[in-house]
Every structure is written in C-alpha cells, then in structure tokens.
C-alpha cells in the first residue's frame, strides 16, 4: 500500500480551474447558440466569484497557521494562490477575447448592438440624461481622501466606479445600483438594429454632474470580492441557526480576497486604491472595462429569435406518474425512477401535495438542503400541517449562500406547528430524502423518496439528477433510522442496504473496491464505473490506484475537480476519466461495481470527497429494482460514450474533447438521454 507521502494527487483548487475552463470552452464552441454563449460567460464569471470568496479565502486563512505547522502539514497557501492568480489571469484574458472578438461581432450580425458611453449619439445622450434622473436617488457618490485611515467600504461583488480628479489628493466612488435598476438599458430600436447599453455607461455619462466641484480625469470600474466564510464557534449548543443568522453580516463585511479593476487604470491610481482599501498586491486582479458578467444571465433579446437559444426540450411525461391520481397506489406496486430536468419536478411536488391531503397519511419527514422560495414543496408542507399531519423537517442551516432563506423557512414551519431540526454544529446534512408514513388497514406503510438533487424546482430545471420512489421495506426502515439520527433518537443507524455517512459509507465503498481488486487478482470479472461531481478523498484515490495496479478497469465521469492523476504507468494506467459540460449541469452520483458479473449499482447524494464520507449526513442507496437498475446503467453508458461534449481528464489537464473515430456516430449524451427516456415513456 502506498504511504501517504507517495500518493500522487492534484491540488483540488488548481484542478477546479480546469473545470471552469471547460465552462469557458462552451462559450467558444461554434455550435453553442449565441445567447447560450453569453450564459456560459455568466456561469464562468459567477463560478469565479464564488471560488475567490470560498476557496481562495480558505487558502488565505491557511497563511495564518504557524509556518512550522504549515510545513508539517505540507501546506503551501502562498505558492498555491500565486499559481491560481497566474491561471486566472490567463483565463480572464481568454474570456475577454471571446467576448470582444466573438460574441460582440455575432450580436451585431443579429442586429443587437451594445453601445458604450463614448459612442452615444445625440438622441442616446438625451435618453441617458432622462434615464439617469429617474434613478438618481439610487446613485450614491462619495469623495474619498487619500490620507491614511480614510474609511472606504466596498460591498461584496457590487459594481463601483472609481473617479479620479486632476491635481487633487482624493478620488470619487460611485455605486452602480444594478439590484435596483437592472444592468442593461434598452435604447429605442432603429429599424432592424437594436441598441442596448450598460447601466454603468448611463452613470458614467453623468459623472460631471455628480462631482461638480472637481475636474474629472478618469473613470474606471472596480469590484471587490469578500470572504464568504461564517466564522462561528462550532461548539455552540442548540442555537446554531441563530448564530448563523447573526453572523450573516460577516459575509458582507468579510476580508477582501480580490479587487477586480479596469486594466486601463494608471498604476499610480491602482496603488492609491490598493492602499486605501488595505489590500496587498496579490489581491489586485486586472480585468476589462466591465465586470460582473453574471449579469448576462438577464441580457435582453429584443429579436425573440429562437435560433439564438437552445432548442426547447419539453419535459418528458412519465408513463406511470402522468396517468395516475394516486401516487401511493403506483409506488406500492413497483419502484419508480424519475430523472431531472428531462422530467418535470412536478412529480415530487404532486406526491407531497397528495400526502398533505390524504386522510391516511400520518407523518411526513424530509431533509432540505436548499429551499426554493415560495415553492409547491413548501406550500404542500404547510398544507399538511393545516390538515393535522405530523411534519418533521430537517433544515441545513449551513447551506452556503442559502442560510438566510433556509432559516426563514424553518421559522415559518415552526410557527405552523412543524418539528424543525437545524444542522449540528460540526456536521452538515446533505442527503436528499423524504419519508411518508401512511396507515393502510391495521398497518403503517412507509413511502420513501431518495434523490441526488435538492428539493428545489428551480435547480431541477438545470441540474441533471436522479431519484427513486420506493416502498422497499428494508430501504424504508433504514431510512427511518436516518431520520431517528437526525431527531436525536439514535446515535448510529444500523443499515445493511443503505450507505449512510458518516457512519458506513466509507467502509462500504472501501469493501466494494477491495472486492473488485480481489476479483481481478483471481481472474474474475472486475470493474468500477462511477459518476460524481468531484473526486478528492485521499484514501479512496489510493484504493483506486491500487485497483488499477491490480488490473481493475476503472471508468469515471467527474464533472468538477478531481485530485486523481489518471493514465500514469504503474499507478493509474487502467483509470480513464471524462467530464461532461453541456446545457445542463451534471449533478447525479451513480456507482457501479462489476462484482464478477453480478453487478451492484448505487446512487445518492455523496461524492467521493472526504466531507461527503466523514463530515456530512449522506444517503447512498442500492438500486433494488432490476428494471430501474438497467435504466440507470443505460443512462450511465450513454454518458460514457459521449463524444461531443465530453473532455478527457488526463494528467496534463489538457481538457481536450473526446475524439470521434472515423465514421462514428456523434453522441451528445444529454440529448441522447432525453431521446432514450422519451422513447421509454412513450409506451
């Protein structure tokens, strides 16, 4: 067995940047419709903002650890941050090229023009002046002196304009109120030409009015990202949700992690701004004239041209659930699988709605990681309470960026009489589970739902996830024990079928991989196929290396980052990894073990990451129904054959697309899965 220091691993934060590069590749792909290219640029930008707020912030915190301890733990945060900034700078330059040299010309060919301040004609100047006076109350200019100690606070990820003055020891700061006014302003169209401008340019045009006592020298856009961590005491008892709620302001006021600024800003002004904000040189990131490209999610399409967007894929109607008014009856007959976003999330909502009014339903229990605001799920739970059902909701109070909404909903449920349990101080609940207890005759029957995605109708339209409705007694009884753990009634849930983190998942996966190793050594059929978001756990990676050395063929689909180095002779030559980035976000987790021809397949909420195995409550379930097992396997195999949107994850991190062989059919897996499910449910 490899010693810890001999295990070859990629750095997760550096490899994550390879994932974001794949997102950028989608914006460059000629086959991607124009407005979808803009969305991929928006996703790239949004991803990077969160990356700096979370991952780079954590690296900065590591720098506070004593040097001797950092050396012992082999931590090199400063070196890693330096490498990150070099890669990000290259990606930002590529981003700018794609935007300026590809997207803008394509927009203009379609009659859509982004007009900048310097190009306003007389009518546009007049329009801009009138529009500015409508929004003037939202614009808050301030003059900031250079002196040491001068207070200047920039809110996280909001846009500001830095205004420099001639021969003065101060400068101006102006907010760009996108949240109040929107980012894009539509000028009146002129025939087939549609003119749009940035709110930033509307404000820039009126800068002299905001600083009448100063001579304007330059105007430059800036944006500051802040640390997103909530530094709370993990040992608090019973009041974690309140502590988190109180700590949310920390996120707004958190330590700066990156200042994005217009690269045209003179170096002298950069230095003044950096010192005023108390930043280091490493915190400064040059960019283009405009920032916050995540706003391009809402870029208007005045042409209503369907060719500029992905062709709609109408949700597939499930052949059983679509035709029944009684979900309990159908689920009791046979397990039922659903796949999002290929199928509507309505099926989960309808199941809950039926349970909320069914006279025989006694109790509803569910875990919620990210709550959609005012959804049919929350309405169904409130309806169940009104109808006298016992409702227990476990709410994860530490779901990053959803803390406030989750806690607010928890309070609403409590007010209506639900039992609401918030997360434990040192562990997150990431499982996607629902259990409904129903009285049938003299017995109580459990109906379960286990999924890979959140109970969120919005994300279910863009995240590829899988779920199963079941009454399988051994599965539902073990799931009931998971809820008993959440409610504090059990310390350890006994389970022979479910894999439950942090109790048994690591051990079972270890045993399953070791079994494949043993089978390979005995000349039996062996193999591991797995799909997940991220692969990071050192012990699992070591086992996969060991399996590869034993001759086990390992085929992985990893959407995000992977710390495993594939294809290295005498270490991982039997491991092949691809990643798929397409119109939907791959989010499902499926694990298939050959087991000498007697295949076992599992699915659930956990990746092969240390946090999923040891620090979160996760549920991974075996697929017991043979038809559904085949369906999951078929979907997995389609994705393994993707030769349109799959990238090879090699040791060089090349992100090269899978090469199609001569005469080979083009397989774009998300579309192939859609067609597969459509045909399967057309009976």
TrEMBL record:
Q: Which GO terms describe its biological process?
A: polyphosphate biosynthetic process
Q: Where does ATP bind?
A: 47, 463, 559, 587
Pfam families listed in its UniProt record: PP_kinase (PF02503), PP_kinase_C (PF13090), PP_kinase_C_1 (PF17941), PP_kinase_N (PF13089)
The record's annotation in PROSITE patterns points to: PLD
Give the residues annotated as active site: 430 (phosphohistidine intermediate)
Q: Per its Swiss-Prot or TrEMBL entry, what cofactor is needed?
A: Mg(2+)
Kindly state one GO CC term assigned in the UniProt record: polyphosphate kinase complex
**Keywords of this protein's UniProt record, alphabetized?**
ATP-binding, Kinase, Magnesium, Metal-binding, Nucleotide-binding, Phosphoprotein, Transferase
Q: What does this protein do?
A: Catalyzes the reversible transfer of the terminal phosphate of ATP to form a long-chain polyphosphate (polyP).
The molecule here is called: Polyphosphate kinase
Give the source lineage, highest ranks first: Bacteria, Pseudomonadati, Bacteroidota, Flavobacteriia, Flavobacteriales
Gene that this polypeptide is encoded by: ppk
